[in-house]
Amino acid sequence: MPTEDSQYIIPLLQHLKSDYGSPIACVHDMGNAILKSVKQVFPGVADFICHFHFLRDLGKDLFDFEYRTIRRYTRAYNIQAKLKKCSKQLKQLIDNDLTLSDSLNGYLSHQTIQCINDDFDPRLTAYIFISWVLEYNSVSNGLGFPFDRPHLEFYLRLKEAYPLLKQLKQKGIKTIPVDVMSRTLTDRALQKLVQRIQEKIIIFDELREAMRIACPDKTQGLNDNGDDDIKNIEKRVSQFRHSSRIVKLASSDTSYHKMVKQIDKYWSKLFADPIEIETPSGKMMIQPQRTNNLMEQSFRFLKRDRRKKSGQHSLTKTLKGMLADTPLVRNLSNLDYLRILLKGKETLAERFAETDILQVRKEEKENERRWRKYPKRMSKLFKIPHLPQKILKVA
Hints:
Structural class: mainly alpha
Number of helices: 19
Oligomer: single chain
């Protein structure tokens, strides 16, 4: 479909209905087009909202403004570009100095976090801290906003590393952009935004826990189908919705009022009772799925598979590229083209057999070293929360 519009969804659902009949129930997101289409094509069919999509839309409504504004502020200060420039300079310095490279590799070779002592070169410390700040995306769980908040994580890491990087600059590492870091972190408007979004995230995460899907402590990403009994979930969400704190917030803050309004609006579509159906074996009860993530996993698998093979992020590019690549494969049936390609050999296998595998491996290893973003084993540090303090405090 060109777009998720009812003019395209309705014919599709009508076609499915003609081929397979009406479903027992429907589970989908909160898009107006799909809601309208299901109501028109499947009147009277049990219709439910995916819990994951419900939470996602609710979180966006709750603190999307603060999140986008935080991102706009940090971009305006151009702080990431300045940190990347500093990181690149430090990496080049380390790569060209065997003593520094060996010292860093020796530190990274330990299985656990090691304390940085006085003998550890401050340039290496600065490189580790700046890289940790820049790799703020490493803590994301693949759920996307509002479950993952990478730009907020960047600000928090910047705030945590700043005092230590300031000390390192005083030790002679002049390329550390502490001035722009200071301006970013002392911006009062930005501070208030961060405080406000953190307060809202606490409320949002409580609802995630109540609904037991895409929970903060889970790492299943988009493959999380939720757990717990639907009646228990309904009871917890009801307690959350009618708690004195939420009622008070909803009466004084527009964003919380909208959140409560959304919960009330879709309540009947969130908590499904088991549906009794007739089968050749007799009556049985079916519990409608809480989420359509299970069905979306198949499409995500297809996209990942094509990305690995093509190196392209967009599946659309892959589909379009198939047409462009076809002539290259078809050329193999052209004897003149094949003769040039084989250079006197009988088969492609013989032609490839002439390749010096040792030379290929040598060049691959050199390219890997040249283009590797970080030294080996350094990425294990990026997911560690409060890394600067832990490195300095580990006994």
